């Protein structure tokens, strides 16, 4: 049965071909209306607050602010927001991290248009939705020992939201001054957070932070970065 009101969707993905394809696909469906699109997590946060879409279709690996941290910031301001993750990363830990952050669904980018449509409908109704492959693995993962954040205990290092932002910006090649400008804080504050970050991870150079960011999916592996 078709709904009378179109479901408004915000699309956040840094790959322009993927983003444009998703927007075209959704706009061609009479049930959906794309109200905005963006390539960064930070813009996703801003547009969500401005546009209040029914569903945010969110990638994980995006510049400036990744989808995981963007999800946390969106829900901190608007707990009723519905974030549906669409990502090339689909291992158990990524799924657990996004659900711990508050996402209500997770799809692989290889998913079919029919499953994507079903997922958006379910999420808009207030339900959760995981692609069949992820749903099968998720109940297995939930039997593993988890910490209070819903993450595997083996990964004991937990960063604050601000530390995660700084980690991403450092890995993308931003200087302390640029980071301070982006986040609206002083260079001294950035230096303090950066030092705490390095102490927590026991990493003492920028190259090491960059490798860590790639290994944990904070930034996409293989992206050309400027190491300073």
Give a quick precis of the structure:
The chain is α/β, with parallel strands linked by helices and 228 residues long.
Considering the chains and any ligands shown, give keywords for the structure.
228 residues; alpha/beta; 12% strand; globular
Structure description:
The protein has 228 residues and is an alpha/beta fold. The chain has helices spanning 16-27, 41-51, 67-77, 92-101, 113-124, 132-141, 161-171, 176-183, 187-201, 206-215, and strands at 7-12, 32-38, 55-58, 83-87, 105-108, 129-130. Helix 5 links the parallel strand 5 (105-108) and strand 6 (129-130).
Envelope shape: globular
Distance between the termini: 55 Å
Record the strand order, biggest sheet: 2-1-3-4-5-6
Mean pLDDT score: 82
Helix content: 40-55%
Any low-confidence stretches, pLDDT <50, length ≥5?
142-156, 223-228
The number of distinct β-strands equals: 6
Taken as a percent bin, the fraction of beta residues is 5-15%
Gyration radius, in Å: 18 Å
The major pleated sheet works out as:
6 strands, parallel
Which structural class is indicated by helix and strand composition? alpha/beta
Order of helices and strands: EHEHEHEHEHEHHHHH
Number of continuous helical runs: 10
């Amino acid at each position: 049965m078709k709904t009378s009101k179109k479901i408004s969707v915000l699309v956040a993905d840094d790959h322009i071909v993927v983003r444009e394809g998703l927007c075209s696909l959704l706009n061609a469906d009479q049930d959906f209306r794309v109200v905005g699109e963006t390539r960064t997590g930070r813009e996703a946060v801003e547009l969500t607050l401005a546009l209040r879409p029914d569903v945010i279709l969110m990638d994980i690996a995006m510049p400036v602010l990744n989808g995981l941290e963007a999800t946390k910031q969106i829900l901190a301001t608007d707990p009723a927001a519905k974030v549906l993750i669409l990502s090339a990363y689909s291992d158990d830990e990524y799924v657990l991290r996004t659900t711990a952050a508050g996402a209500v669904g997770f799809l692989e980018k290889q998913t079919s248009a029919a499953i994507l449509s079903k997922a958006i409908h379910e999420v808009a109704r207030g339900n959760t939705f995981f692609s069949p492959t992820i749903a099968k693995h998720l109940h297995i993962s939930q039997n593993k020992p988890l910490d209070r954040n819903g993450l595997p205990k083996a990964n004991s290092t937990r960063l604050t939201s601000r530390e995660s932002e700084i980690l991403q910006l450092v890995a993308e090649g931003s200087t302390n001054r640029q980071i301070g400008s982006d986040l609206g804080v002083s260079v001294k504050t950035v230096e303090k957070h950066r030092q705490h970050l390095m102490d927590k991870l026991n990493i003492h150079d920028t190259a090491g932070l960059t490798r860590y960011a790639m290994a944990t999916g904070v930034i996409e592996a293989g992206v050309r970065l400027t190491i300073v």
